[in-house]
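Key idea: predict the complex, not the pieces.
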Amino acid sequence: MSRFLTKTCPRLILAGCLPAPAARSARTYASTASPISQFDWEDPLLSKNLLTGEEVAISETAERYCQEQMLPRVLRAYRDEHYDPKILQEMGELGLLGATIKGYGCAGVSSVAGGLITRAVERVDSGYRSGMSVQSSLVMGGIDDFGSAELKERYLPEMAKGTLLGAFGLTEPNHGSDPGSMETTARPHPTKNGYYLLSGSKTWITNSPIADVLLVWAKLQETGKIRGFVVDKRDAPAGTLETPAIKNKNGLRASITGMIHLADCPVPKENMFPHVEGLRGPFTCLNSARYGIAFGTMGALEDCITRARTYALERKQFKGNPIAKYQLVQKKLADAVTDAAYGVLAAIQVGRLKDEGRATPEMISMIKRQNCDRALYNARVLQEIFGGNAVSDEYGIGRHVANLFVTQTYEGQSDIHSLILGRAITGLQAFV
Amino acid sequence: MSRFLTKTCPRLILAGCLPAPAARSARTYASTASPISQFDWEDPLLSKNLLTGEEVAISETAERYCQEQMLPRVLRAYRDEHYDPKILQEMGELGLLGATIKGYGCAGVSSVAGGLITRAVERVDSGYRSGMSVQSSLVMGGIDDFGSAELKERYLPEMAKGTLLGAFGLTEPNHGSDPGSMETTARPHPTKNGYYLLSGSKTWITNSPIADVLLVWAKLQETGKIRGFVVDKRDAPAGTLETPAIKNKNGLRASITGMIHLADCPVPKENMFPHVEGLRGPFTCLNSARYGIAFGTMGALEDCITRARTYALERKQFKGNPIAKYQLVQKKLADAVTDAAYGVLAAIQVGRLKDEGRATPEMISMIKRQNCDRALYNARVLQEIFGGNAVSDEYGIGRHVANLFVTQTYEGQSDIHSLILGRAITGLQAFV
Amino acid sequence: MSRFLTKTCPRLILAGCLPAPAARSARTYASTASPISQFDWEDPLLSKNLLTGEEVAISETAERYCQEQMLPRVLRAYRDEHYDPKILQEMGELGLLGATIKGYGCAGVSSVAGGLITRAVERVDSGYRSGMSVQSSLVMGGIDDFGSAELKERYLPEMAKGTLLGAFGLTEPNHGSDPGSMETTARPHPTKNGYYLLSGSKTWITNSPIADVLLVWAKLQETGKIRGFVVDKRDAPAGTLETPAIKNKNGLRASITGMIHLADCPVPKENMFPHVEGLRGPFTCLNSARYGIAFGTMGALEDCITRARTYALERKQFKGNPIAKYQLVQKKLADAVTDAAYGVLAAIQVGRLKDEGRATPEMISMIKRQNCDRALYNARVLQEIFGGNAVSDEYGIGRHVANLFVTQTYEGQSDIHSLILGRAITGLQAFV
Amino acid sequence: MSRFLTKTCPRLILAGCLPAPAARSARTYASTASPISQFDWEDPLLSKNLLTGEEVAISETAERYCQEQMLPRVLRAYRDEHYDPKILQEMGELGLLGATIKGYGCAGVSSVAGGLITRAVERVDSGYRSGMSVQSSLVMGGIDDFGSAELKERYLPEMAKGTLLGAFGLTEPNHGSDPGSMETTARPHPTKNGYYLLSGSKTWITNSPIADVLLVWAKLQETGKIRGFVVDKRDAPAGTLETPAIKNKNGLRASITGMIHLADCPVPKENMFPHVEGLRGPFTCLNSARYGIAFGTMGALEDCITRARTYALERKQFKGNPIAKYQLVQKKLADAVTDAAYGVLAAIQVGRLKDEGRATPEMISMIKRQNCDRALYNARVLQEIFGGNAVSDEYGIGRHVANLFVTQTYEGQSDIHSLILGRAITGLQAFV
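Result:
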């Protein structure tokens, strides 16, 4: 614990300056150990028992920040479809960005600790977690895994602080589930040596309108192979790069999403990832982000449980009974609590394997698919408990439902992960 | 057919003035009979075979209006959470309001015809259908069933035209599923003879902010029994009646919803329904509205099918195959098409029984519950077909999903209908 | 009604000789009209309203026979995996075999009436209905549709009486869902003019061990096209035809199932269906049988509802409450009753279209798939109501559950029908 | 590992004498570590990583015995509804009975090791696991937890060897889910000092017909409190104790089930558990057995997966494709594999907590409910892969499906566990 809180990441000391949680927080932290033999509906299978002291501390710091600083902003942000980039800066100050990366001012924590951070953020909103995932897993993780030493030095420290924002450009308008068919290309600059020209369009790119740096995947004209390029917006000549926002989304409205249009945008050769070719590059980044989603969505589900339970205890119908007393309501709660507990265990297990180098992409497909699916399913069922009141956005659960549907479709739509698993189980591919 | 189009409701002649459907419509009408032995995915069990010529004509008129006049407005209306009251006027001009009522300028069509109208409207948007249901079934229907001759003459003709709008005040903030516990009261005016003073609050009242006339249910102080009052906003003294809008809804954003606050609002005794006491009054109105919901939601589901099918045929992934070719996609379509076909048959059957006086409230609970549940379930599954693109509101399916969730919770939340059915099946009540 | 009961099929007069139902029957017939506005859990959407008087009479005759004569035998038959061929004779005496066929001693009733018979039989046991479906729809129906006048005259009258039994040989060990790949062949007899020699194996053939006549589908060597042959067991030389029983089944144990092994079995050319080639022949037969399954499984589901409801009313747990009073139990009943009601309406609708020549195979795929799936699903859920007692075969519901699983897999496994529907909806086939 | 294999339980040496698994086993043991980064569909989330070497060894010993010795007998046993008591003796010889008990010749292994044994046994058949659970958890566990030193010495060593068999009498014909209402009584013997007379009936008692010792729960007449009695069949006077078998079960046919009828059966006071009163006694035993069920059912599910996968790879339909190549088949496999992986992780977690004294009964309700429900659900879905062939008992999956339904209903029917969880989550009971 000490390393995280004091040495690697002194900024976390700030956490201590926050008001005591009891005073302000919307959520009571399970910071004191449950007495033995007491069932805790917030951690029904005592997953906390599997965490190190450091991990518990990180989780508590993240939860406190999220409940106290982020939660009060989300209702309005979602209504207005507005994303405040300061949130990433605040996260940076707490050491929450790129937290699993070693060096470059990053905290260097375990994968499980990284997952606990995503859970804390997604307990507030999946959109906020998406913004963080892009910064931490997709862009910083990609640069850390595949970038040259120079790229790392140039970008990671500022990104860790949240003062430089990133976006990840893989998906194209006509190629969602099948990125191998991408059409974006990089060709040698006809006149300017040491430069590529990138052309093509990317869509559904979280953070693209506010990002300073875009990690863009494109096919190198010379080889036809997919390569990764760090496109620095600040260096792009006018007219070669646009990142318009996409508005009027059904979900993840508290995050910002856009496109990337490249029209012969020049990028220096040094900004190309040197050693990774083909889909291995983007898939490695996605793998890491998917792990965060698998853990994060459990936070959203847990928040739905808390909200539904509170509502059910307070709402009285038929002879003054709280509706929490009705069998049909209790079954909904029992199902959701169970799925959340199982999902957290699976996420912890895969995190441990990840740090041991034993996690396979299929494992991450499995937990990404299952946790998103079950979070969404249960959130929807819990929403029924609110009856007609669910239509008011004040109760928050409709926002989670809308968000979780999106998490089920991005970074591998659920059916695609089914087929990835099916292929791993049978040895036969069924995509076509 | 002739009666509907020419005698009872001459305004329907207007329908003939609309441009030919082929020229403008977003939907191809199945107006020419399918050739024998050809499966029609839009009417898989040939429910049209069960309709009269008049009903087919009414359905086509309504569909044409909805696709041509309403559909182009809905995207913006939903985004902006704005309801245009002119829509009810247009419906009135076509004879679509209170269409099953006989006399008073109403069309006097069959229950099935009424259901076909709700299907046409809800194919566009459940919010538009909600606005119409309130006007037609809850308020006009209530006045027609229980109002004095004077009330009928005074209100029905204008309401049929859509120039006078109504709202239905039953649900209270603390009494949703259990209206029998309502707190709104009517007491004799202490000084003004022949008047009651109404006090209390109603919530989630569709149309209340724009309504001219409110059908309010309140407990008569003298008897403790629930009675119905037609509260004419135009006669309410300042400060006794407010109908503020509720904003920031998760669904039904193209309809307008509000509260009703009554503070010693004086209502003349003649505006009380003379002969109905207790829950029979509001439940009769609800019964009629629920029938419309049961039929209407099938329209929303059918629109989801159409949209998902089109998308699946156009969207290509993996070696250029349209995703409609994939088994997992086809199963989703097959399930939805089946549920829509079954739901329409059930709605027609109950409509016929209704007109024969053989429909029981439990039948309507059954089809309201089942059709809302299956419409919602399938809409959600079909939404998966759109993958990440589903998050864009341009595809429309997310709007249906959000709307259909609300239809599942209003006018009897699904679980409440389960218990109504359970009671009818077992003879035992399980509400408490 | 009169035609059925007196003219076409005088044997039905026997029905009048049965003891009065009130005295012995396990089921109360809804023969007297329900009073208006009374919900009838046994016919919740009043499907009876859609039947002719003749159809009601046929249904009652069939129900009475099934409840009084078949029901008492089924428990032992299922335990012992024993099928009593006398049952088909009894059905024949009542005019229940090949009932929709006109002439040849058959009753010539409507498709809906035929469906009502399968519902009555399957209310007792899906195995008994299977035995009847093979005789009536697959074999008699096949001969009636495609056989020469001589074949009809020779076989149909005796089959209608149940004194001559049939089996239908289409499925092969390696070709279940894809009969077009069948390996059974018919080649011209090398020496005996006017004869074919049939060779190959068929499996999962209901009734094959007890059948006198086998309708076998084989590829004609000369053309490679599938043709139908009426193989008369009585004429097969020793060693050329075997029909061993398959024992130790998980379901349908009250029916008898076997294989057909043909080793150069000689069949006269006159026994080949003259004008039908390819899969149209067997698929037409299957279509008719599938219609019977769609209607029949609703009977099995209805019996599960009756049994579960009775058990729930009689079983008391927790302070002496009948478990029927619990919400979780009522929901199970409400769901099942709803699906049964919807399924019956769909079956009636398709029956009417069938008689009008407007039913397509996809419609039958739809109702076969949906009704089998929902019958199975709900039967399983209802079985939960019995708790630990469900394991006893005395309660009957476990038998229905096991049977209904088989109905979901035969005559088109559920997924195959999904793909048939998917093809019809999208115009794209996804089988391979 | 050494302690288990050599010191505590020398009989396990026998395991070494069994033929090498490769030669005969129906299952390949995952005894050699998977290479890193290789997805293993038999252990998708690498739960083995959480086991000690000893636990792995125990699991392998148990799996080997079960696959080699038990599996070949089960098909016939199930068909004939015959249980061979020698199986318990063989288990005893291997040290598998009461394995978590310390002393008395028991192996004293961890709860997880105990769970791995149940998984190995239930991979073959839930009935065999039931027979073992009764012996190990319910009776031996009960005596170990609550019996006097004399009772332990007298019974545990022989029971550990499997030479003395036990049964557990709690459930009564009229009191399944609510044992607190039991009617069996113990009254002081009117003439014989130091004896109680037990009267009452117990039903659905696994092993009762073959048991030597019955652990019977009865209400003490003097206090009205429930107490536990070890009823030794060998001491019961003629006519006071009968344990007839219940035949014709739908599931668990490879286990033996019966009743216990007590008619003033004398039991010495020393055979009453001295210090435990009320439902705490039986619920503690059930808790332990339920843990075994939660882990065991995962074995049954895993066997269904293996069987379905093998079938899908071997079965070819449509252009010679193995059906494992179809999307609808792959999705079924992916779902089942995921649920099995999650369920195993949860079972391991609760086992660890159990050994730390931190497992609550609600945790065990949670994993018992979820693992039984998911095992059953997935087994049924996997069964669909077999199409019509599923009806043959040779494929084994139908047996698992029938068994798993029973596991869902016994030792707490699924809905009862939902309400136990609901109570723990909300603080409100909803049983009545």
